[in-house]
Write a structure and sequence with these properties.
12 strands; 21% helix; single chain; 4 helices; 6-stranded antiparallel sheet; alpha+beta
Length: 207
C-alpha cells in the first residue's frame, strides 16, 4: 500500500539490465519475463519472473482469481500499485510464500503465526485511508491442505493472506527473483554472467 517512486533511477544501468533480460528471454526461454516492483511489501526493484514449483520461502508473482474480487476491489480503492498485470486482467502482486501444505496458520491478536512462530508486522488493519480492509478474524486456525499456500508481504500495511486468505498454485504463476534493488534494504545488482546463469536455472525450473 505504500508507494515508492524511483524515476531518478531509470538510467543507463537499468536499460542495460533490461536488455540482458530480453536477450536471455529470447535465447533461453519464452517464459522468462521481468517486472518492476515499487511497493514496500517486497524489496523495490527489478525482478526476473519465470514459472516454477511453489515452495515456502520464495517470492512469487501473484494473480488472484475472480473469487477474491472483493479484495481486489479494496486494493484498487487504496491505490495499491500493481507489479505487472495478470492474464485474467487483475493486478499482479509480489509476495513471499511463507506456508504450504502441512503448515499450521493461526490468526492471533498479535498477528499471523506459522507453525507457532509470529510473522513480523503481520497484524491485520481494520481501516486504512477510511477504507475497510476486512482482515481475517482473530481465532482462525487451519492446517493447510494440498495446494494451499499462505502469502506474506513485509510491513504492517502489506495486503496479503492476512486479508484474502489462502491461495492455490493457479494463483501463483511465476517465481520472482530480485536482480536490481532500489531501496534502503540493500544494493543488490546482478552481473551479466550471473543473470545469464539465473536465466538458465529459470529455464530448467520452468520446464
Amino acid at each position: 500500500m505504500q508507494q515508492l517512486r524511483f524515476i531518478r533511477y531509470l538510467s543507463l544501468p537499468i536499460l542495460y539490465i533490461v536488455v540482458l533480460i530480453l536477450v536471455a528471454q529470447f535465447f533461453l526461454s519464452k517464459t522468462i519475463h521481468y517486472t518492476f516492483n515499487s511497493t514496500a511489501s517486497e524489496e523495490p526493484g527489478y525482478y526476473l519472473l519465470y514459472p516454477a514449483a511453489v515452495k515456502a520461502g520464495n517470492i512469487y508473482q501473484i494473480c488472484l482469481n475472480n473469487t477474491k474480487q472483493e479484495y481486489i476491489n479494496i486494493m484498487i480503492k487504496i491505490g495499491l500499485h500493481p507489479s505487472g498485470n495478470c492474464k485474467n486482467g487483475n493486478m499482479a502482486l509480489l509476495k513471499t510464500v511463507v506456508a504450504g501444505p502441512g503448515d499450521l496458520v493461526q490468526i492471533t491478536a498479535s498477528g499471523v503465526l506459522v507453525n507457532h512462530k509470529l510473522l513480523p508486522d503481520s497484524k491485520g488493519i481494520d481501516i486504512y485511508k477510511n477504507i475497510k480492509l476486512k482482515p481475517l478474524p482473530i481465532g482462525l486456525s487451519r492446517t493447510l491442505k494440498n495446494d494451499e499456500y499462505w502469502l506474506y508481504g513485509h510491513g504492517r500495511t502489506s495486503y496479503d493472506s492476512r486479508y484474502f486468505g489462502i491461495v492455490n498454485s493457479n494463483e501463483i504463476p511465476q517465481k520472482a527473483v530480485l536482480i536490481k534493488s532500489f531501496s534502503s534494504w540493500g544494493t543488490t545488482t546482478v552481473s551479466s554472467s550471473r543473470l545469464v546463469q539465473m536465466s538458465k536455472v529459470a529455464n530448467s525450473e520452468s520446464k
